[in-house]
């Protein structure tokens, strides 16, 4: 069965272009032109991925993302017309998994869509021959159930926060550069925009560290990158 993608874009020409290119790749496409339609379509169609513009009538993309993230774990790729770093960070902080700044090439959009769908499939597949539970001190990452707990208390993470933590937990003690994390967790070359990793690390620390300013688990290795302490 073809994977279903919901495209939310109020620019009719761009919506049609994205739809045409994704359909050509074999995806099942659903569209919406404003925020209210987006929420209704996401709840009705249960898509495998959401391509979501920020500037929308009725409800903007941030509001749509924030609402849907409370209801489902669908991967969300946000589109923004601004090169403003603030827009990108806000999108990531409310639960978007990725973002692209307009104008963008369809080739890059297709690459990101493929990578996000591939990561979502991997997250749903428990590691062969194991229970899929990784422990580091009081931190426990259950890959099979897609849950994280600290001292027995469940920690709510966005899908991308979970992917990042699970990758580092699965490679405890090893240091990864931002570029390596982008390649392994996001699944493609992120064109040097490593701020994405820093944002996700910062929010993970706020959720799993007792003191985010002095992390016990997610440690910065100066000049190199990040690691999860054993």
Write the layout of secondary structure elements.
Blueprint lengths: L3 E5 L3 H13 L3 E5 L2 H11 L3 E5 L7 H9 L6 E5 L4 H9 L4 E4 L4 H18 L9 E4 L2 E4 L4 E4 L2 E3 L3 H12 L7 H9 L8 H14 L9 E4 L3 E4 L2
Parallel strand pairs: 1-2, 1-3, 3-4, 4-5
Antiparallel strand pairs: 6-7, 7-8, 8-9, 10-11
Helix pairs in contact: 2-3, 6-7, 6-8
Overall description:
The protein has 230 residues and is α/β, with parallel strands linked by helices. It folds into two domains: 4-123, Rossmann fold, CATH 3.40.50; 133-228, Winged helix-like DNA-binding domain superfamily/Winged helix DNA-binding domain (Arc Repressor Mutant, subunit A, Orthogonal Bundle). The protein is built from eight helices and eleven strands. Strands 2-1-3-4-5 form a five-stranded parallel sheet, with helices on both faces. Strands 6-7-8-9 form a four-stranded antiparallel sheet, with helices on one face. A hairpin with a 2-residue loop joins strand 6 and strand 7. Helix 2 packs parallel to helix 3, helix 6 (159-170) packs across helix 7 (178-186) and helix 6 packs across helix 8. The longest helix is centred in the middle third of the chain and has 18 residues, at 106-123.
Keywords:
230 residues; 5-stranded parallel beta sheet; alpha/beta; 20% strand; 4-stranded antiparallel beta sheet; 41% helix; globular; 2 domains; Rossmann fold; single chain; Arc Repressor Mutant, subunit A
Q: What is the H/E order?
A: EHEHEHEHEHEEEEHHHEE
State the end-to-end distance: 41 Å
For this structure, the CATH topology of the largest domain is Rossmann fold
Give the class-level CATH name of the largest domain.
Answer: Alpha Beta
Beta-strand residue fraction: 15-25%
**Structural class category:** alpha/beta
Q: What would you say the CATH architecture of the largest domain is?
A: 3-Layer(aba) Sandwich
Principal-axes geometry comes out as globular
What's the total count of β strands? 11
The radius of gyration computed from the alpha-carbon positions, rounded to a whole number of angstroms, is 18 Å
Count of domains: 2
Q: What order do the strands of the largest sheet run in, or round the barrel if closed?
A: 2-1-3-4-5
Q: Which regions have little confidence, pLDDT < 50, spanning 5+ residues?
A: none
The pLDDT mean sits at: 86
Largest sheet: 5 strands, parallel
Q: Give the number of helices.
A: 8
Write out the CATH superfamily name of the largest domain: Response regulator
Fraction in helix: 40-55%
Oligomer: single chain
């Amino acid at each position: 069965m073809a994977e279903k993608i919901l495209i939310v874009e109020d620019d009719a020409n761009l919506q049609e272009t994205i739809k045409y290119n994704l359909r050509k790749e074999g995806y099942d496409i659903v569209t919406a032109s404003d925020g209210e339609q987006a929420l209704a379509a996401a709840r009705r169609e249960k898509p495998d991925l959401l391509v979501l513009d920020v500037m929308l009538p009725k409800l903007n993309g941030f509001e749509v993302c924030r609402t849907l993230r409370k209801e489902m774990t669908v991967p969300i790729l946000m589109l923004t017309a601004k090169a403003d770093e603030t827009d990108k960070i806000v999108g990531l902080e409310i639960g978007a998994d990725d973002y692209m700044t307009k104008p963008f090439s369809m080739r890059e959009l297709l690459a990101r869509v493929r990578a996000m769908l591939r990561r979502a499939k991997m997250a749903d597949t428990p590691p062969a021959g194991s229970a899929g539970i990784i422990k580091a001190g009081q931190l426990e990452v259950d890959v099979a159930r897609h849950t994280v707990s600290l001292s027995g208390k469940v920690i709510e993470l966005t899908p991308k926060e979970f992917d990042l933590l699970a990758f580092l937990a699965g490679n405890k003690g090893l240091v990864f550069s931002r570029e390596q994390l982008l390649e392994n967790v996001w699944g493609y070359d992120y064109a040097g925009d490593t701020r994405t990793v820093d944002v996700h690390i910062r929010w993970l620390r706020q959720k799993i560290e007792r003191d985010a300013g002095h992390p016990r688990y997610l440690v910065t290795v100066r000049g190199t990158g990040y690691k999860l302490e054993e």
